[in-house]
Model the fold of this input.
Amino acid sequence: MPSLQSPPIAESPRPVVPASVDYARLKRRIQEAGLLRKQPWYYALSISTNMAMLVCVLLVMVAVNNPWVRVLDAVAFGWVSGQLGFQLHDAGHRQMFAHGWLNTLVGFLTADGLLGMSYGWWTSKHNRHHANPNNVDEDPDIGPGAIAYTPEQARARRGLLRMLTAYQAYFFFPLLPLLGFSMHMSGIEYLVKSRSRLRWLEIAALCVHTALYVGLLVFFLGPWIALVVIVVHKASGGFYMATVFAPNHKGMPQVPGGTRLDFLRSQVLTARNVRSGRATNLWYGSLNYQIEHHLFPAMPRNHLPRAQKIVKAYCAEIGVPYYEASVWRSYRELLGFLHEIGRPLRTRPIAA
Done:
């Protein structure tokens, strides 16, 4: 993996073929392998499985009158919400069905109906990330926030946030449970400020979701247990999703603002794959194949393992670095990157 001190992005020294042709050739190989064909039956089974798991955790929540079991069930509820998040993700990329409206329907019902999160906000933010991965000016996933992802962001910090940034590698995992709450608030802010096509429908759906989610938990569990369940559910769901998303690009080369790379290199050089396996693929919702997903965002999830073989071989053929790490190495690199970003603040007075 390129170090933090190396140039943000280096072009591959192969001027024989125009860069735009590289991606066209790769896409042709993927198409000839049939990997861009939609998989409606696979997704029908996946959606059915997610709904069955959701029903099971809710039945346990209501049927078992034990507060400790309910807290553990709330953690399981968070994991199921993560799986629903992958369902939303795939629908948002139109991976599921040939008809665009059907993908939108699944995405809307999953986000606003089941997760209580704005579908419009998520698709807008995520599409900007895909268009500009690790671009310091244009990728919202490395924009200013609780964590600093660039030296410039770190230097701009003041007060308590500056101290947090200096030691942000230690605070990173403890902050992850807040992601679930942050996503809800960001969605609300988006709907208040935007004029999206589905704005009022989303607002209505989120109101219904909130009334049912809070109202039914209070009705069946009582107010105090309901409050504990909600906090544990949102915290565990946020933690789960953040551990999946964080290793994909954090600590990989960043693209300076105003710089433009060809599509293939902008997607491959800025992404980190996490080494696959059955358990890993399930836990990550196959987003551990981050390079393949970024190259072909509309590819059905179950085709990504086959696509990896083609993409990896092709990158070696044209001399484009392809990076893959184990689960533990990916987190070690991520934390090392965050610690290095905060290093200048540890060597200067915090009050500066």
Summary: The chain has one domain: 19-346. The radius of gyration is 21 Å.
